[in-house]
Amino acid sequence: MTALSNHETIAVIGSGAMGSGIAQVAACAGHPVWLYDAKDGAAAQGRANILASLDRLVSKGKVNEDERNTIASRISVASSLSVMTDARLVIEAIVENLEVKRAVFSELEGIVSPSCILATNTSSLSVTAIAAGLEFPGRLAGFHFFNPAPIMKLVEIVSGLASEPTTLDTLYDTALAWGKEPVRATSTPGFIVNRVARPFYAEALRLLEEGAASVATIDAVIKESGGFRMGPFELMDLIGHDVNFAVTRSVFEAYFGDPRFRPSLTQQELIAAGWLGRKTGRGFYNYTADAPQQSPDTASPSQIPAFVVIEGNLGPAEALVGELEAKGLMTVTREAGTGHIRIPGATLALSDGRTATSRATGGDRPDLILFDLALDYTKASRIAIAPADQAPSSALSAALGLFQSLGMAVSVIDDVPGLIVLRTLAMLANEGAEAALQQVASPTDIDRAMTLGVNYPRGPLSWADQIGAARILTVLENLQMSYGDDRYRASQFLRRSVNAQHSLHPQASPDAIN
């Protein structure tokens, strides 16, 4: 272990929510902490905010008064950077401005000891660029916490081009000693989380712009079928559209206009209107007291089908067979077939990235209704379905009755490629695969980062392995064929894994890569 001793001083520059949170984490771990902010009175206010946070922990019984007072006694307000001569680690958490950060670290080099580690909490700027110009750039690395720092476990340890292994190892082990879950990443735009998460927002925005479904419907399907804690529109409103759009735009520009990261005109319009989300009272949702609640589109009850015929293996949706049988529906299974559910008046199939209309035109029956992926069909409370343009209304009614018989709310959406959950997962897995290909991080750390940093129900790579990497590749190829957009190009990491029949995630079962 190369973790810093808790007797060594930590300095935090920037006393906003993130800086104060990091200072609290270090103080709770036993370190003496300097808290500094260039704005008059800001560091004192930051310390007061930490004490208020500690008081809340006391009221909840998580710490006692003596512990609270001991932690508080470790935090001192610094009047200037010059008092940080005894710091063993300085963590910068100030404005996301490259020149400002460079100036701070340049000044620090003349103050701190040669053994002091310099760390930046930047979420979007190049660690390499921040370190450039320092006399000893090897002692600077990224130490990226997630808000709120005292609660969120994930910390990205980000290596710049010059970062020394000992610097990175010390930060990694110190994060562990502080009770965090560190992952290693290289200094590329967005690091792990802010890069791999882009499709979660981007695909929802594109679905909305195409008229696939309403904001509330897309959010409900992502949560109730996909198992995510928040829908993409809820989350963008919470983050703030100015912040979310700025991250997307910075990643897009840093990758020289790669269409995978193309920003949304819809989100840009929200910013132009000043509708930034919760903090302004309006975003995709209206948060004013008298605003009507936005509810997902849910189909009215329909008649339960008399019997069900399962043709072939349903793949990720195979659990539906047991659910149908458990509900007492007369169910016949036939080994021959290509994964269809036949009921009187309708044919149902899991989406493969093509539209129902194109599949009906290309050989499927005209009464085709596609249904979306679910994280767990035995627990999903909602499902999205889309009818082919050729399908009669009776086919849609029959499909509604089938899923309603399983206790699911059903949202009928427009016939868009990949529907909602499947399309979102395919793009998240693809971006995770591309990050692994470019050696931004290991597949294990990518999955850990996405579950710990943004609370995804599963890491996108292990989830893709579970439903079949080859299936994800097919979905992406069909999406690219449907749109003719390089945004959906499949990662070579994914293609190679499929061709070699290797898992995307090393801890996944080899049986899951069919």
Estimate the mean pLDDT confidence: 95
Task: Give the name of the CATH superfamily of the largest domain.
Answer: NAD(P)-binding Rossmann-like Domain
Kindly report the CATH topology of the largest domain: Rossmann fold
Structural class: alpha/beta
What is the terminal-to-terminal distance? 40 Å
Instruction: Give the number of helices.
Output: 20
Which CATH first-tier class of the largest domain would you pick?
A: Alpha Beta
Widest sheet: strand order? 3-2-1-4-5-6-7-8
Unreliable segments of 5+ consecutive residues: 508-514
Q: What is the domain total for the residues?
A: 3
Helix content range: 40-55%
**What is the second-level CATH architecture of the largest domain?**
3-Layer(aba) Sandwich
Principal-axes shape call: elongated
Number of strands: 15
User: What composes the largest sheet?
Assistant: 8 strands, mixed
- Global Rg: 26 Å
Q: Could you list some keywords that capture this structure?
A:
single chain; 514 residues; alpha/beta; Rossmann fold; Transcription Regulator spoIIAA; N-(1-d-carboxylethyl)-l-norvaline Dehydrogenase, domain 2; 3 domains; 8-stranded mixed sheet; 7-stranded mixed sheet; 20 helices; disordered C terminus
Task: Describe this entry's structure for a reader.
With 514 residues, the protein is of the alpha/beta class. It has three domains: 9-187, Rossmann fold, CATH 3.40.50.720; 307-412, Transcription Regulator spoIIAA, CATH 3.30.750; 422-452 and 466-512, N-(1-d-carboxylethyl)-l-norvaline Dehydrogenase, domain 2, CATH 1.10.1040.50. The protein contains 20 helices and 15 strands. The protein has helices at 17-28, 42-59, 65-73, 98-109, 127-131, 165-177, 193-196, 198-209, 215-224, 232-239, 241-254, 265-273, 319-326, 356-361, 393-404, 421-437, 443-454, 460-467, 469-483, 492-500; strands at residues 9-13, 33-36, 75-77, 87-92, 117-120, 140-145, 154-159, 181-186, 307-311, 330-334, 340-343, 346-350, 368-371, 382-387, 409-412. An eight-stranded mixed β-sheet has the order 3-2-1-4-5-6-7-8, sandwiched between helices. Strands 10-9-11-12-13-14-15 form a seven-stranded mixed β-sheet, with helices on both faces. β6 and β7 (154-159) form a beta hairpin. The longest helix has 18 residues, at 42-59. The protein is elongated, with a radius of gyration of 26 Å. The two termini are 40 Å apart. 51% of the residues are buried. Residues 508-514 have low confidence and may be disordered.
